[in-house]
Every structure is written in C-alpha cells, then in structure tokens.
Amino acid sequence: MKESFTHNLLISEGYKLSEDAWDEHGRRTYLHDDIATREYFMMLAMTLRRAGWETDTRRLRLFNHRHTGEIIEIEPGGSETTGHFLHHMKRSAK
Prior knowledge:
The chain is of the alpha+beta class. It has one domain. It has helices spanning 5-12, 22-25, 38-50, and strands at residues 16-21, 27-32, 53-55, 62-65, 70-76, 84-90. It has a six-stranded antiparallel sheet. β5 (70-76) and β6 (84-90) form a beta hairpin. It starts with a helix and ends with a strand.
C-alpha cells in the first residue's frame, strides 16, 4: 500500500485500516472505536478542513477534496460495533 497524506492523517486520528481496496476499487475502509456523534463529526470536520477537505452541503456525513476529487464518507457502526466506519474513496468508486 502506498501511504497517502490522508491515510496518515486518519491513522493519527485513531482510525485503523480495515480494508485496502484502493488499487482494485479505489476505496479504503477504516474503523474507529468512538461513536460518530454530532460532536465527533464536527471535530473531525475541523481536522479534515485543515487538510483541504470540505463538508458536502447536500449529503450527510460526506466530505469532498476539491484538488484530488476524492471523498470521505462516515458510516455509523451497526449493532455489532461501538464505533464507526470511514470510507475514503476515489470519486468514481462511489
């Protein structure tokens, strides 16, 4: 796996890489132990904004990167997990 700035940023924020299908499908999935509350999402948005990510104004829990064309989507964990998932994708992978 070729590490990217975004990957390193997510790891530093406590995310763990769960699936790396970047080369095959343009997607990486991460898991975080914290529940994706509104407060958590707002703190993550501030961190991502400093790295060039923008909150999508039309879709919930979605970030866009204007320069790379990539997106980040937050998925609340299901009944089997206490945390949440983060999907980092090439726009064409969505």
